Amino acid sequence: MQLRRALLALNLGTGTGIHVRAMSMSTSNTPMNTSTTTQHQQAQAFVDNFNESYAAKHEAFENQFWGTKMALKGTNESPYSTDLLSQTKKEMEDFLSDADVLVKAKNFRDEIQKQDTDSDTVTDTTVTDTDLWKVLNVIIRTCQCNEFPTPEAKSIREQTNAFEGKLEKDRNEMKLGYTNSKGEFITASSVGLRTTMRTSLEESERQSAYDGLRSIGDFVCDHPQGFLEVVKLRNALAKKLGFGDYYDYTVQNAEGFSKAQLFEILDGLEEGTRPLMVKARQELQERHGPSVLQPWNTGYMMAGSVVKKMDPYFPFSKAVENYMRSYAAMKISYAGATMTLDLLDRQNKYSNGFCHWPKPAWTKPDGTWVPSITNFTSLADPSAVGSGLTALNTLMHEAGHAAHFANIRQPSPLFSQERAPTSVAYAENQSMFLDSLVGDAAWRAKYARDVVNDQPIPFDIIEEEIRSTHPFKVFQLRAMLAVSYFEKALYELPDEKVTPDNVKALADEIELKIQGGLSGRPLLSVPHLVSDEASCYYQGYTLAEMSVHQTREYFMETDGYIVDNPNVGPTLAKSYWNCGNSRPFLEIVKELTGKELAGKAWIDALEEDLEEHIGKEKKEYDDMIEKCRAAAAGDGDGAKEEEDDLDLQMTVKFVDGDEIISDSSKLGLLGACREFEKFVADRVSVAAAN
Ligand SMILES: [Zn+2]
User: Fold this and answer.
1) 542 CA distance to ligand 1 middle (Å)
2) 350 alpha-carbon distance from chain centroid
3) What is d(CA 139, CA 687) in angstroms, rounded to the nearest whole number?
4) Hey, is 541 helix, strand or coil?
């Protein structure tokens, strides 16, 4: 700590990041000393310049990403278009793939290391402790992930980007929907189709919604310059770069280990949970009859009735406030971040929730803190049954990403940008840990309240949901695995076999093999497959879920509870968040939990006896109800909390496309939530009147 402060003081004085050893040498007057200082100054100037340029290019691209994904109108000063999206992406990629930058960074690093080793001045720190060293290394790692060593490789990449941009735009504008029981065609996004499939009483509607989801696969595969061309181009690029295929290339960049190693881990999970999957499918059939195994019936029959019963306790309008209250109770801070939230579904909007950062958080060399600027989106249709809970899950998830990246405290924006070399598993671990709370009876006892009577959700409903879902939780694991096994098989196909018929058949084959039958979420409807940022990415969710269970187990063993535990935010910030991508994911998980990352905690949770599980959840539910009662009856804390604003150290703006709904810098966080609630209520009453 002491040394860091010395460095910082030096930075302030000279604008360089000279480490302590160089500083001590600068008091003598040898030629070597001067050259060392100059070398460090040059390196620091290079690093400073790099950081500022990167931040600017990153921001330009991310603004286009948001504008085009949200289908914003734009203005003369800041227009949005897919052309500008490709252009700004190219500018950012050109910068990161500039061979000159990589060479310079390596030279500076080697020189500094050499001088450090040559120097005979002994201090208790070395160059490898300095920010300068750290940033040079992250520049090298990042540029290596973006390297296009030949013009040919680069041109393949550009062509891929152009195809992807067009395909995504066409996919967003694709006419989707289902035929209702009256024979009318109802327009619905993929999210709407999934909701219909989960909740509609009419089997024909559910089946039609499923067909609608399947049609996405036809659309992307049959598109003339579509997904299959993109797959071939991605593979061609990976091969030019010396990798077996694109999946291997992506895994190595993102996780730092090979596809073969990854599938050793995944094969273990796959084999370890296959008997659970077979058993769960049998159990499902015994409970509901064979038609439950039709992909459009499974989700509905498993949870259809309980979803409706739960719905009043998960009103979408309260989702944002509940997320903020529960994060605040865990003492999560956003470190001065500004967040723009576009939460409602609408036509032409990108069909998957996401969280991105036009401004990654970082600390400048003079110690100035740059707080993050975050955009995030979910796809709520507040009038649809079950959508409140879905949206809440997305919200807790994306807000978890936002909290994580807001708290990365490193000397370059490269540590807090979400692409390689940032591990997908590392990023998803944080968001999935936080969204897992919504499933806890303790969380529901406090936050799942009916807006009309202000009563907590009764445990009976929670128990019914547990009974209808716990034995089948393995399906989620298998669904995650299916995406990875599909992408593995897809990128291993030789080019001539990458045809629409083959690829569609392959998707069905993997669903049968991994999920035991056709899936309610057809593989080819998964948006991650198409999008560059998210393709060959799903294994990250699987590794993250392993860690989520392991991290939950850690908090349960250490503190006995997670929901509203004020230790959670500071612990996550210290152990998982502050370091950004400067440390390997597997290492930080091991350091916090004391164990190597493994599937055991997850498999244990899946195998937990149903009655035992219900018993535990009941106890946690009762404890929380009692805590809330005591708080309300005690010294009036409950009432006080209601009036005070929440301390999340962030500014939030709610938007709906181009429209600004509310802004916490004017109204406070709770004030902004109230405005948002009003907006949602108006939207619902308009929908009801139509
Ligand atoms: Zn995520």
Assistant:
1) 12
2) 15
3) 51
4) helix
Question: Which residues have beta carbons under 5 A from ligand 1 (an ion)?
Answer: 428, 431
540: CA distance to ligand 1 center in Å? Answer: 9
Q: Kindly give the distance from the C-alpha atom of residue 355 to the centroid of ligand 1, in angstroms, as a whole number.
A: 8
Which residues are registered as beta bridge partners of 651?
Answer: 338
Identify any residues that bridge with 354 across adjacent strands, giving them in sequence order: 377
Give the span between the Cα atoms of 474 and 595, in whole angstroms: 23
Task: Single out the residue of 181, 175, 213 nearest to residue 507, CA to CA.
Answer: 213
For residue 255, the model assigns a pLDDT of 86
Q: Of 532, 524, 527, which Cα lies nearest the Cα of 489? A: 524
Round to whole Å and give the CA distance between 456 and 348.
Answer: 36
Residue 602, Cβ neighbours under 10 Å: how many?
A: 24
What is the residue whose two structure tokens read 């009309």? 452
DSSP codes joined into one string, 458-478: PHHHHHHHHHHHGGGTHHHHH
* pLDDT tens for each residue of 473-511: 999 999 999 999 999 999 999 999 999 999 999 999 999
The Å distance, Cα 398 to ligand 1 centre, comes to 6
Question: How far apart are the CA of 505 and the centre of ligand 1, in A?
Answer: 28
Q: How far is the CA of 397 from the centre of ligand 1 (A)?
A: 6
Gap between the Cα atoms of 315 and 450, Å rounded? 8
H and E: helices and strands count for the chain = 28, 11
Distance 407 CA to ligand 1 centre (A): 16
Alpha helices in 470-526 (DSSP H): 474-492, 500-510
Encoding tokens for residue 655? 């938007």
526 alpha carbon – ligand 1 mean position (Å): 14
> What pLDDT score does 556 carry?
96
688 alpha carbon to ligand 1 midpoint, in Å?
32
pLDDT of 216-266, one tens digit each?
999 999 998 889 999 999 999 999 989 999 999 999 888 888 999 899 889
- First-last CA distance in the chain: 63
> 424 CA distance to ligand 1 centroid (A)?
8
Rounded to 5°, the CA angle 223-226-228 comes to: 110
Which parts of the chain register pLDDT below 50? 1-32, 637-641
Nearest CA among 180, 182, 189, 187 for reference residue 208: 180
pLDDT at res. 353: 77
Q: Ligand 1 centroid vs 392 CA: distance in angstroms?
A: 14
Q: How far does the centroid of ligand 1 lie from the alpha carbon of residue 354, in Å?
A: 7
Backbone angles phi, psi at 440, to 5 degrees: -80, 135
Cα–Cα distance, 434 to 309 (Å, whole number):
24
Structure tokens given for 92: 């950012």
Q: How far is the CA of 19 from the centre of ligand 1 (A)?
A: 37
For residue 407, which phi and psi values (nearest 5 degrees)? -105, 10
**This prediction's pTM:** 0.84
CB 240 within 8 A of CB 152: yes
Is the Cα dihedral 516, 518, 519, 520 positive or negative? negative
pLDDT at 121: 58
